[in-house]
Amino acid sequence: MDISYNINNNRHNISIEKKLSQKFISQIEQAKSDKKILLIYDKNIESKFIKNFYELLKLSGCKIFLLQLEGNKSNKNEKLLFKILDFLILKSFTKKSILISLGGGVLGDVCGLAASLYLRGLIFYQIPSTMTAMVDSCLGGKTAINYKKIINSVGSYYHPYHVYIFNDLIQTLPNKEFLSGIPEILKCGLIKKNKIIRYLNNKKESIIAREFEIIKELIVESLSTKIHFFQNDINEKNTRLYLNFGHTFAHAFEMSTAKLIKNDYLRHGEAVGIGILCELYYANRKSKQIDIVQKILSDFNLPIKVLDENKYDSKLIQKIQSQTYKYIFLDKKKINNNPRYISLKKNFIPKTEEMKNNELIDETIFKFIK
Ligand SMILES: NC(=O)c1ccc[n+]([C@@H]2O[C@H](COP(=O)([O-])OP(=O)(O)OC[C@H]3O[C@@H](n4cnc5c(N)ncnc54)[C@H](O)[C@@H]3O)[C@@H](O)[C@H]2O)c1
C-alpha cells in the first residue's frame, strides 16, 4: 500500500505498482462482493494491457463483464452515464457488485457518478490511465458529467474503495496524455511545500523519460497534497477550494474553445497550466511566480497561451475572448455573483478570493489568449 486515507471512518487505499500483479486480486477478494464485476475501459488504452488485465481479473473467480467506452470531453455527458446505468440494470448488478473504471479523468468521473447513483452505490474501483487521472482525478470522490455544456454541472461525491495505478499504463501513454498531467502536479507543488517544484526543475530528463521511481514520487506527492486539502473538507467549503487553483480560468477556456473550435482543443491539464498563469496575473501583474510557472510549462512543452495567433483569425480570437469572459461567471465557487479564484501569497500560501475587477478579468484573458 502506498497511500491510505480515511473518509467517515472508512479506510481508502491507493497502490502504485511497477507491474500488474496478483495483489489486485486479493484486494478484490477483500471487497466481499457478489462476485460480479463490470470493467469499463477506455477504447484508446493499449489492447495488450486490457488483455493482460482481463486475464488477471479472471483469477478472482468473479463473473466479468466488459464495456469499452471512450473518454474525451465530448463524451462526458448524460448519454455515456445512461449507457453505463442501462448496462448495470440489464445485467442485474446489485449493491454488492463491483464497477471498475479503467480510463482517464472523463471515464473516472462518469463511472464514479454511475457507481454513486446505481442502487445508491455499488463497490467502485478506479484504475486511472492518463497522467491527469493518476495525479488528480482518481481520488477525492468528485464525480460528474458536463450537462448543458457546462463543465461538471451535474455530479456527486463518491469515493473509490481502492485506487490502483500501474506503471505499464504510464509507459504506454501517448505523450499528450502523459504531459498534460504535469500542470496538476505543478499546482500541488505551488499550494503546499513539498518536493514537486524542485523535481520539475531539476529532474526534467528523468520525468520525460518516465523513470518509474521519479514518476511514482511525483504521483505520491501530488495525491498526498490533495488528501491534505480535501480530507477534512470533502464538500469543498474551505481548504479543498485551494485545489481549484487555476481552474476558474481553465474551465472558461475549455468551454469557450470547445464551443468555438473543437471539443478536445485543450486537454483539461493544459488549460489548468494556463489558468494558473491567469490567476497569478490577476492577483499581481508583476508576480515573480509567473516566470517560475512559465518556465516549467515551457520545459515540458505545454502551452502558455490558449491560441496560436498565426493559426486563427482575429475575429475568432475575439469571439473566444468574449465567450471566455462570459464563462468565467459560471464559476461554481462564486459568491455574491462574483467568481472566485485562488491567489498565492509570496510564501506560496493559497487563499480563496472573489474576483471583483471585471476589467482585470478581461485584461487577464486577453494577456493569455494568444
Ligand atoms: N474528479 C476530479 O477530481 C477531477 C480532477 C481533475 C480532472 N478531472 C476531470 O478529468 C477530465 C480530464 O481527464 P483526462 O485528461 O484524463 O481526459 P480523458 O479521460 O478524456 O483522456 C484524454 C484522452 O486520453 C485517452 N486515453 C485515456 N487513457 C489512455 C491510455 N492509457 N492510452 C492512450 N490513450 C488514453 C482518452 O481516450 C482520451 O482521448 C476532465 O473531464 C476533468 O474535469 C476530474
Tell me what you see in this structure.
The structure is a single chain. The protein has 370 residues and is of the alpha/beta class. The protein folds into two domains: 3-173, 3-Layer(aba) Sandwich (Rossmann fold), CATH 3.40.50; 182-369, Dehydroquinate synthase-like - alpha domain (Dehydroquinate synthase-like, alpha domain, Up-down Bundle), CATH 1.20.1090.10. The chain is 47% helix and 18% strand. It contains 16 helices and eleven strands. It has helices at 23-30, 47-58, 78-90, 105-117, 131-137, 167-172, 175-179, 182-191, 196-202, 204-208, 212-230, 247-260, 268-283, 289-299, 314-328, 358-369, and strands at 3-7, 10-17, 36-42, 63-69, 98-103, 123-128, 142-147, 150-157, 162-166, 340-344, 350-354. The strands form three sheets. The chain has a seven-stranded mixed sheet, with helices on both faces. Strands 7-8 form a two-stranded antiparallel sheet. Helix 8 runs parallel beside helix 13 (268-283), helix 13 (268-283) packs antiparallel against helix 14 (289-299) and helix 13 (268-283) crosses helix 16. It is globular and about 60 Å long. The chain starts with a strand and ends with a helix. The model has no long low-confidence stretch (mean pLDDT 95). Bound molecules: nicotinamide-adenine-dinucleotide. Nicotinamide-adenine-dinucleotide binds next to helix 4, helix 5 and helix 13.
